């Protein structure tokens, strides 16, 4: 296993140096960029071996994924343009991940023993429990489908993080999420505008809490508790930090620059957000206004509610930016306002895909211009007209029928002086003073 890792963590190759020079000379990219991998191994008591998943991100974009439950048991591209990578790359990544699954399984077993936990992560006796950590930020995902029918649930459990090219929301969504006996790892590198290494990182968590992390010097480790101190001493004895440093300074930067070059046409695009405001009554006196931004890229966006052009940052609810499952992102911000004062509130949206910031208000549903009383009066009149027409039709039908039963002459209703004469005539008892035939 260690040989496989050392093959992966080689120093920069000649191809890498040529690629670095090409990107620097042509100034293909501005700003900093990150390549990050998120790995987790989660116990499944009674269901067999733990599940191992790793997802790689270049800035905001998922570039690859591996799932031990997948039938192929291979690392798969996370986007169409990533398929341009050479077949050897995918073979090498797959072998590395298979190695990690073996290491992750052993790691889970050792940590459960050190913390005196069962396979389900339950405490046995008086063993040590992983302590809470200030950096642990597990967040329950918002159910997008409950808030908006068009919103798409994130396609992956894992998301990217800060500082270069990532939103801190992704780290908050991911880090500390594998509670109940799970191992997490986040590792990778950042490069500057010149394509050179800015920083590297390698952090581990267990049972939803920080465990051990590589320091900024890439030469030493910080342990979170007594059990992690055992791991730190073992890793220092075998020189594990040097292997990670070689990977960060070498292959990690090489892969990052290669992905930047192959995905430049896609990654440099900008998709403006599709925005609107929804209205959600809370009570007779208050409503929630929610400002939506969907389908935007890149992930960096600002949503701010204002009242009379004054920011309400402290009073609004702002959810984390989420992947939309189609290479774009989603976000919303909400504020509670008094009923009837909705038009005093505006949502300001800033994104590089917009020529200028958008300012949105809630648009009430269209109301009919015809008053309700007029509509009711019209319906009453319509019913009266239809009733009159029906009565006239019946009278005409009976008139025609009586004409056919007589001599065939036309007998006009006006020939009778009263309704009584008409009734007697229809009963065959009254020979009228008109020319209408006598009924028999």
Largest sheet: 8 strands, antiparallel
Radius of gyration: 38 Å
Beta-strand fraction estimate:
15-25%
In round numbers, the mean pLDDT is 76
CATH C-level class of the largest domain is Alpha Beta
Supply the CATH superfamily name of the largest domain.
MHC class I-like antigen recognition-like
CATH architecture of the largest domain: 2-Layer Sandwich
How far apart are the first and last residues' alpha carbons, in Å?
Answer: 117 Å
Q: Please, what is the oligomeric state?
A: single chain
Pfam families: C1-set, MHC_I
Region (Disordered): 121-144
Keywords: Glycoprotein, Immunity, Membrane, MHC I, Signal, Transmembrane, Transmembrane helix
Organism: Galemys pyrenaicus (Iberian desman)
Description of the structure:
The structure is a single chain. It is built from ten helices and 17 strands. Helix content is 32%, strand content 24%. It starts with a helix and ends in a 14-residue tail after the last helix. By secondary structure, the chain is of the alpha+beta class. Helix 2 crosses helix 7 (240-262). The strands form three sheets. Strands 4-3-2-1-5-6-7-8 form an eight-stranded antiparallel beta sheet, with helices on one face. The chain has three domains: 2-138 and 175-267, Murine Class I Major Histocompatibility Complex, H2-DB, Chain A, domain 1 (2-Layer Sandwich), CATH 3.30.500; 274-360, Immunoglobulin-like (Sandwich); 377-426, no CATH class.
